[in-house]
Automatic annotation (TrEMBL), chain B:
This is ABC transporter permease subunit. The keyword Membrane applies. Belongs to the binding-protein-dependent transport system permease family. CysTW subfamily. CDD domains: TM_PBP2 (cd06261). PANTHER family: INNER MEMBRANE ABC TRANSPORTER PERMEASE PROTEIN YDCU-RELATED (PTHR42929:SF1), INNER MEMBRANE ABC TRANSPORTER PERMEASE PROTEIN YDCU-RELATED-RELATED (PTHR42929). It comes from the Bacteria. The chain crosses the membrane at residues 24-47, 86-108, 120-139, 169-190, 218-240, 274-294. Residues 82-293 form the ABC transmembrane type-1 domain. It is a multi-pass membrane protein. One of its GO terms (biological process) is transmembrane transport.
Length: 404, 303
């Protein structure tokens, strides 16, 4: 009998492992499955309780050369046959097989899917996940991330200096940036040849009902607050946030803002339901390539937001050393350049620009992929929020989204 | 009829007096399944809806409590969304009924002599199920976007104000709900009309009933089981639907239904008690409405 591959679901894997380990009769295996299901139900009940932080799983990387990587769509180089050249090269060089999965569609829904297992310290089926700064901050705060061994990641010295110390992870003990991007404004060049310069231009009466903003609170609110002259990375509080909320509420209620969306805002730009929008830098490069060179993206005069998606090793993963090898590999400048050339987001790796110039000089000049000091000085990182602030601000923002 | 009543009076099988062990044994898997996959989540949901925030916990941390206040809070905060959900569902159900009844009548009664046409039309009613309803809803969003042929034509004909739009409005959401649930309304009505004995209609006409009277007094009452089933199959899922009203599909910021509110509370705000309380309220209200409706409309003949 050939051995079948284990199913993906970690809970089922656990049950199979249990059954194999005990080698008992069919009846007791069934009982085990029943007990597992009851545990699952109880775990679902107990998920909300405050408990001690989970402990990291033992590392079996030395004997098990594999890892699962959960990432966002269109976030790694891909050739025409659908293979990932940089990943294949990594496997060839290290012998570590990588199961790359597009499992993250949204920070919140991914968190909703795995949080109960994380709280119990169980394997979530991913050994490396890439999530956005603020979500990473939550995982680190709750003890859901494993501390990285920097000795295994010598290439981490290539990390851009401005990202080496962030307020949610001093010294990058738990997280390492994968790719980053700007939030700014974009418009349809055919319909709006005069262009836009600032967030204020979105509220032009001519654009009534044709403006889109992002459902990602930090980007939309960040841009509005920057327009109001607030330093979003610095020390601001309820008053500054409330002022921006009032402005957005007014624009939504007046019908100036057509809709508030996540990734699907691109559909509205393409169908021309929206002619101008708050959006993410890399996306505009992609839709310009897909649907004709119709849109232009800028960082508004008052500044844009800068965010990063970061590698993290979930607490229940037993492949930390394998992931560290993966991170080290992607911090080689020539590898980072290969990825950047495909995904069009900002690479955090110093030296990637020089490596990219060797592939395509025009690419290396693109300010949205390899921003210089001047461009970077116009982009700001939304400061970390405390749990209480997060709850309060999100509630205010969601009120607008739900029309409450 | 009388003969049947006589016959059954004679032959009612005696129910076994003692609950047999085999019966319980055969029932056990079903009961266990229900207990595990229906009762357990329901209890979990109920307990969650009564949780209180953990004062020292992080975002999304709650402790078990007896916090009835959650229900008061969600009703006062989202009362409008609850009413809106049932309003949209009601309008969509009525619209679907008005559209589906003639279709079902045509296929089930008029096409009887042409079985091929009947089969083709039935397949056409079911055909949309071959494509995911998410894709179909997204397709409508494209077809009805501001620069689409349909909308620009309507504007050119002055049937729509120049600055009006379709996607993201209440009208679009109700349109989507109606469109998506039409097959669920058509099929049950078709099954009852298909068995309609047309000799009753002839008899009605012979008794000098106008076509309208015959419809009102004969056809409609005989098709009621289908209408009841169809409206239930449409109203219940429509009230809880969150796809059509989602901002990613046909909805906007002022069309959120209760499903969208539950989603936002669960995934974004991590306010699990509020999401659970809203789910329980949705379930309870639907149960109450359906209970009253079924009692009034009657289900003795329901299929």
């Amino acid at each position: 009998m050939s051995r079948r591959p284990m199913p993906e679901d970690p809970m089922i894997r656990r049950l199979i492992a249990q059954a194999r380990a005990s080698q008992l009769t069919r009846r007791s295996v069934l009982a085990g499955a029943g007990a597992g299901a009851v545990t699952l139900a109880l775990a679902a009940c107990a998920g909300g309780g405050a408990g001690a932080k989970p402990t990291a799983a033992a590392d079996t990387s030395a004997s098990d050369k594999s890892l699962n990587w959960a990432n966002w769509a269109a976030y790694i180089d891909e050739d025409d046959s659908g293979a990932n050249p940089t990943l294949d090269a990594f496997t060839a060089a290290t012998g570590i097989a990588v199961n790359y999965e597009v499992a993250v569609d949204d920070n919140n829904s991914y968190y909703g899917k795995v949080k109960d297992q994380l709280a119990l310290g169980q394997d979530i089926g991913a050994d490396a996940v890439c999530l956005t700064d603020w979500m990473i901050a939550r995982w680190i705060r709750l003890g859901y991330a494993q501390e990285l061994d920097h000795a295994n990641i010598p290439n981490l010295s290539n990390l851009t200096p401005s990202l080496q110390n962030v307020d949610f992870d001093e010294g990058r003990a738990y997280s390492v940036p994968w790719q980053g991007g700007f939030a700014g404004i974009a418009w349809n060049k055919e319909k709006l040849p005069q262009g836009l310069k600032s967030v204020e231009d979105l509220w032009n009466p001519e654009l009534k009902g044709r403006v889109g903003v992002l459902s990602e609170m930090r980007d939309t609110m960040g841009l509005l607050m920057l327009q109001n002259g607030v330093d979003i990375a610095g020390d601001w509080g309820d008053d500054e946030f409330a002022a921006a909320i009032d402005q957005l509420t007014k624009q939504v209620e007046d019908g100036q803002v057509r809709n508030i969306k996540g990734n699907s805002y691109l559909e509205d730009l393409k169908s021309e339901d929206t002619l101008a929008a708050i959006c993410w830098s890399g996306d505009i490069t992609v839709i310009n390539a897909e649907a004709g060179d119709k849109w232009e993206f800028i960082i508004p005069e008052a500044g844009g937001t800068l965010w990063n998606d970061n590698f993290l090793v979930p607490i229940g993963s037993s492949k930390k050393a394998n992931v560290e090898a993966l991170i080290d590999y992607y911090y080689r400048p020539e590898v980072a350049a290969e990825v950047a050339a495909w995904v069009n987001y900002i690479t955090p790796v110093v030296g990637a620009q020089e490596a990219a110039a060797a592939i395509d000089p025009e690419l290396a000049e693109n300010q949205l992929i390899f921003p210089n000091e001047e461009t970077l000085s116009t982009a700001h990182v939304f400061r970390s929020l405390s749990a209480a602030e997060e709850q309060r601000y999100q509630a205010d923002f969601q009120k607008i989204l739900l029309g409450a | 009829m009388a003969f049947a009543a006589f016959a059954t009076a004679e032959a009612v099988p005696q129910a076994p007096k003692r609950a047999s062990r085999i019966g319980w044994f055969l029932l056990a898997p079903g009961l266990a399944y229900l207990a595990l996959f229906f009762l357990t989540p329901l209890i979990s949901l109920l307990l969650t809806s009564l949780q209180a925030p953990d004062l020292y916990g992080d975002i999304g941390a709650y402790v078990y409590a007896f916090n009835w206040q959650n229900y008061v809070d969600v009703v006062s905060e989202y009362g409008e969304h609850i009413l809106r959900s049932f309003g949209y569902a009601l309008v969509a159900t009525a619209a679907a009924l008005l559209i589906s009844y003639p279709i079902a009548y045509y296929i089930g009664v008029r096409c009887r002599s042409r079985p091929l046409l009947q089969s083709i039309l039935l397949v056409l009613v079911i055909a949309p199920f071959f494509i995911s309803f998410l894709l179909r809803t997204l397709a409508w969003k494209q077809l009805l976007s501001d620069e689409s042929f349909i909308i620009t034509s309507l504007k050119a004909l002055s049937l729509m104000a120049p600055d009006a739009h379709f996607t993201g409005t209440a009208f679009a959401v109700i349109f989507g709900l109606t469109y998506n649930f039409i097959p669920f309304m058509t099929l049950p009505i078709y099954t009852t009309l298909e068995r309609l004995d047309t000799r009753y209609l002839e008899a009605g006409a012979d008794l000098y009933g106008s076509p309208a009277t015959v419809f009102r007094k004969v056809t409609l009452p005989l098709s009621m089981p289908g209408v009841v089933a169809g409206t239930l199959l449409t109203f219940i899922p429509a009230a809880g639907d969150y796809v059509n009203a989602s901002r990613d599909f046909l909805g906007g910021t002022d069309t959120a239904m209760i499903g969208n509110v539950i989603e936002a509370n669960f995934l974004v705000l991590l306010n699990y008690p509020a999401a659970a309380a809203l789910s329980i309220i949705l379930m309870a209200v639907i149960l109450a409405i359906v209970g009253v409706y079924v009692k009034r409309a009657g289900t003795e003949d329901l299929l």
